[in-house]
């Protein structure tokens, strides 16, 4: 199996990350894509004022397992600039209203394409507080004050945070698994190839030795009677 076929297979196996991470209430996004050799790919993500944004990326497959990464604010200011790194985690707090640009650079590699996984996590405090206040007002209006609403809300917030953290950890573990699988398959191909080469050389040497020894004991002189 060629390297391009392996990268396409890994992209197919990990594509579900991008379809599941972007469905949460906080507009989280996760995506796995192939970055061609000698090119740069940019993605945009919209945020609101005074949110917090966490960006995490990792190179899953490709020669060197490294890319360049640039994070630009909606005003065009460069917030993060990484050069030839295999992974990174960056936090923007607070954010401004607009589209942040995430660019992945593989221009330094002229032959090898890279598979990159990245995740954007938005913590929208305004929407959380707004929804909780509406729910609290609704319950209070129904005279259900005996349920200790503050305690229930604190527990729900804790459960929500733990679920989000578990989701992020599982996504990163899938990315690590995909990268390890690629490395194992690549190493297996190399070991198998050189094992076949060594076996061929050994068989060739054995045949040559047998032929040489037989030639030494063959009597080429003809006896005349």
Automatic annotation (TrEMBL):
One Pfam family in the UniProt entry: EMP24_GP25L
Record keywords: Endoplasmic reticulum, Membrane, Signal, Transmembrane, Transmembrane helix
Top-level taxon of origin: Eukaryota
Subcellular location: Endoplasmic reticulum membrane; Endoplasmic reticulum-Golgi intermediate compartment membrane; Golgi apparatus, cis-Golgi network membrane; Membrane
InterPro entries, alphabetized: Emp24-like (IPR015720), GOLD_dom (IPR009038), GOLD_dom_sf (IPR036598)
Coiled-coil blocks: none
Signal sequence annotation: 1-22
Chief place of localization: endoplasmic reticulum
Record domain GOLD: where: 40-122
Membrane topology, as annotated: Single-pass type I membrane protein
UniProt entry tagged with the keyword Endoplasmic reticulum: yes
One GO location term (cellular component): endoplasmic reticulum-Golgi intermediate compartment membrane
Transmembrane segments: 191-213
Family: Belongs to the EMP24/GP25L family.
Listed PANTHER family: TRANSMEMBRANE EMP24 DOMAIN-CONTAINING PROTEIN
Protein name: Transmembrane emp24 domain-containing protein 1a
Lineage: Eukaryota, Metazoa, Chordata, Craniata, Vertebrata
Gene name per UniProt: tmed1a
């Amino acid at each position: 199996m060629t390297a391009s076929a392996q990268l396409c297979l890994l992209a197919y196996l990990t594509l579900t990350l991008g379809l599941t991470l972007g469905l949460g209430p906080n507009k989280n996004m996760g995506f796995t894509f192939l970055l061609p050799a000698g090119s740069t790919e940019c993605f945009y993500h919209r945020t609101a004022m005074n949110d917090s944004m966490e960006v995490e990326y990792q190179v899953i497959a490709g020669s060197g397992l490294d890319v360049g990464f640039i994070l630009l604010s909606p005003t065009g200011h460069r917030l993060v600039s990484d050069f030839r790194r295999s992974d990174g985690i960056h936090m923007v707090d607070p954010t401004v209203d607009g589209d942040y640009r995430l660019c992945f650079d593989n221009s330094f590699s002229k032959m090898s394409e890279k598979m990159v996984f990245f995740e954007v996590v938005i913590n929208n405090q305004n929407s959380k507080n707004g929804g909780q206040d509406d729910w609290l007002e609704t319950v209070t209006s129904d005279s259900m004050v005996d349920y200790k609403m503050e305690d229930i809300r604190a527990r729900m917030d804790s459960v929500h945070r733990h679920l989000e953290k578990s989701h992020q950890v599982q996504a990163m573990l899938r990315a690590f698994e995909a990268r390890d699988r690629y490395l194992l398959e690549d190493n297996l191909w190399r070991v198998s190839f050189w094992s076949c080469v060594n076996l061929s050389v050994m068989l060739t040497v054995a045949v040559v030795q047998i032929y040489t020894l037989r030639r030494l004991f063959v009597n080429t002189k003809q006896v005349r009677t």
